[in-house]
Amino acid sequence: MNRILKSIILFCLATSAIYAQTAPAPQVRFKTNIGDIDVTLQPASAPLTVANFLNYVNKGAYANSIFHRSVPGFVIQGGGFYLVAGAPTAIAEDPAVTNEFKISNTRGTLSMARLGGQVNSATNQWFFNLADNSSNLDGVDGGFTVFGKVATSASLTIMDRIAGLPIQNLGAPLDTVPYAGASYVVVNNILYIPQSSAAAVQSAASFASSTGGVSPGEFLVLYGQNLGPATLATLTLDSTGKVNTYLAGTRVLFNGTAAPMVYTSSGQVSAIVPQNLAGRATVSIVIEYLGVQSAGITLPVVGSNPAIFTQNSSGKGDSIVIRNDDASLVTTANPAKADDILILYGEGYGDISDGPPDGTIVTGALLPKPLDPVRLLIDGKEYPTLYAGGAGGLVSGVLQVNFKVPTLTPGAHDIQLQVLDRKSSSGVNLQTK
Fold first, then answer.
1. Are 194-300 and 307-432 the same fold in CATH?
2. What confidence tens digit (pLDDT) does each residue in 20-42 have?
3. 428: closest CA among 310, 338, 306, 304?
4. Which among 215, 216, 314, 350 could disulfide-bond with 305, CB atoms 3.0 to 4.6 Å apart, if both were Cys?
């Protein structure tokens, strides 16, 4: 296979068109020495405040910081001090943010602290409301801005556990410091939580929704936020020549099995479904970035999900198909003719009866063999295939189908693959003359 074709296919896999998804509210994890507190931020209600908070997070200002105030039944407060050689030291303040009170200060909300009588004086300090404090905080000087809410009952338990610790008086402004044994309650770091959803999982070739199920060996794209690095990172090989399951800090786990990673970025990742899902009814998909895991996404497992790669990386239009004799790409300007031997590329053919481990670059010595027959349809009619299986020189999971072009009228013809009872999407073309 020529280098141009490899580049085309890798381009399709690594730069798939981003389909619009409804972005969930961002979540962060306060990692403390008592336990984790997960918080859902509220940028829709307090955009300036959330941006201000995340600016401190992004520059690591809250790493090794402490909860420096605890008032039982009222609040626990932090963000003002971090430890230097074990001693509390003030965190440098950025310019104050405009007050954005819209959400009531009820139990489990995260709010900005500020100077008494000064409405727009919030900088780096924040507090968790231990109870419903709306009656005394919502009406003070325009109200205290709520910019987050504790996300889980387990996190509320950690919040209450911190509030229940003994208090030490170290002198103002550290006269109500909660103490865990003989140490401060330390916020080791505040980390972004990867977020995606079942509705944000799609085929990497067709961009069809995966809510109906995923199949072993299928290439998936998962959309969301905080899934990986800001800059796109594409697949790499490990020392054995297989595609890495850890890429630029990202892993995608299918029932706990790390999948070969095609690419990763903050807003979308692509991975290859492990073959060990064959025969399972469902799968839980977890995205992990820098050790922080998303909530599990549960989807059905199906026997196959065939799809054809397209030249414009949209799942529609001209297919990626080349001539066997010269490896030239079949296009509108370079159509195929009757009796040409063509090679078509797809994925999602399901379980294999034999083949290499997940993520292996396929060689002629060990080609993945689909357990179930792969059928070729042109304009809805089945035509024979010369070969259907793993694609030599590409990662296991890419399907190669060789066939002879039948006599067809000139123009675009709908081409599909079928495995078991599932067909690839219509709207993918083969151009002929």
1. yes
2. 455 678 999 999 999 999 999 99
3. 310
4. 215
